Amino acid sequence: METEYVLKLEHVSFRYEKENVLEDINLAVPKGAFLGIVGPNGSGKSTLFKCVLGLLKPQQGKIYLFGNPIETFKDWHRIGYVSQKANSFNTGFPATVYEVVASGLTAKRGMFRFFTKKDRQAVSEAIEAVGMSEFSQKNIGELSGGQQQRVFIARAIVSRPELLILDEPTVGVDIHHVQSFYDMLDELNRRLGITLILVTHDIGTITEKVTHVACLNKHLYFHGKAEEFDKLGEQRLSQFYGHSLQVLSHQH
Amino acid sequence: MIQEIWQYEFLRNAFIAGILIGFTAPLLGVFIVVRRLSLIADALSHVTLAGIAASLLLGKNFAYFANWNPLYAGMGFSVAGALFVEKLRSVYKHYQELAIPIILSGGIGLSVIFISLADGFNTDLFSYLFGSVSAVSRQDVWTVLAIACVVIGIVILLYKELFLLSFDEEYAMISGIRAKLIHFIFIVLVALVIAASMRIVGVLLISSLMTLPVAASIRIAKGFKQAIGYSILFGELSVIAGLLLSYQLDLAPGGTIVILAILILLIVIMWKKWKRG
């Protein structure tokens, strides 16, 4: 059977004004994969995401989502997105965890339509999947950074996306909770079969969990299975990156 | 007092309009405050004043316009001002708050020109500045009622979109919501409510009816729906008590309503402090 690709990039280049940010990126993410994209700050990770989410239009190259060219892609509810929320979030916002998660169904339900009983059930399930049930009626601002990030993941998965994109989700999350956070992602990937793309500069933690790795620094330096990536060794890798790569020790 | 409300039509009009405004202004106010757009209401109210001044000027010089309700011109100006704010916000992407002083001073400038052309102030204009219990006509009540119905209907229909847009604009865009259209509809609603509130609270104090009840509400609300509920409760309390007081003591209703709203806010803040210990 032919491999089904959730996301495919062909020769994608992007530049702001005169500065090249992405150069000739080729990337293919098979269904069910857990891809970790690593790269130092300023390597174009966020730009890559913005291109994939349709917020920026690359000057060259093609992007396919679920086999459709991005220009004609309409089913955005098939994609979930979690940003580095802990940094930019308005903590005074008067909304409960439940309300925030339910807002993830807005686009799927469509304009002028109300949430159904089934929707409410989906919201409760998503909150449970991230282990936040007991906080469901709390205001989002009362939670810790890690808990908030779980809520945002619940919001992203409540519409049952087939692809979930996470942009440095552990920024601002208490170091002790990072491990259980990754365990939860692993669970989403295996149990619900959601394809995951995770961007991080914390390379140590991810190689244990991910199935595929891509190294980005303007160009794509490596793209393949996680086992192959491990074989490369850290020596070779730091050559790709210069000295800016942050290697954190594995915790076994 | 209650008997008098039924006895005198002007009082009845003021109360009906007041109750409708006490509901719609804080309802939209919740979205305005959480999106940090509080000052937009101020800017738009001054543009509305320009519209009203223009209408009074036209009415004075041309018999044809004399019977026009100034509220309509106010609404027209307010909506146009809202569109202009949006345009400016996209022109000055990195200085979005610049739109507000530009529109605000533009509104005042135009108002002053129209007022001086019309040979200065008169009582009619004074009532638009500070509100009036006696100036609300039956036609005003119908206009306010129509606006209230439109606003409440649209907020119910677009509730989940408005919530998402307020909570997380970036996510709203990514999830494929027609964010620009919904924002546009919202800002037009704000412009309409501002024009509608003009008669009761007056141009200088409208924004307070959109922000003060919300400021009190978000101190104690659990969740967004509760925040809306408390805001409307506080809004209605200040409008109804404010109108009663202003009638009894012969005060301008706008000022009375706003001072009551501030009192409620202070009580809520103190109560919250006391509860925490």
From TrEMBL, chain A:
Transport recorded as keyword: yes
Chain ranges of the ABC transporter domain: 7-242
Matches recorded under SMART domains: AAA
Keywords annotated in UniProt: ATP-binding, Nucleotide-binding, Transport
Domain of life per record: Bacteria
Keyword ATP-binding: yes
Pfam families per record: ABC_tran
GO molecular function per UniProt: ATP binding; ATP hydrolysis activity
InterPro entries according to UniProt: AAA+_ATPase, ABC_transporter-like_ATP-bd, ABC_transporter-like_CS, Metal_Ion_Import_ABC, P-loop_NTPase
Family, per entry: Belongs to the ABC transporter superfamily.
Protein name as it appears in the record: Zinc ABC transporter ATP-binding protein
Species of provenance: Parageobacillus thermoglucosidasius
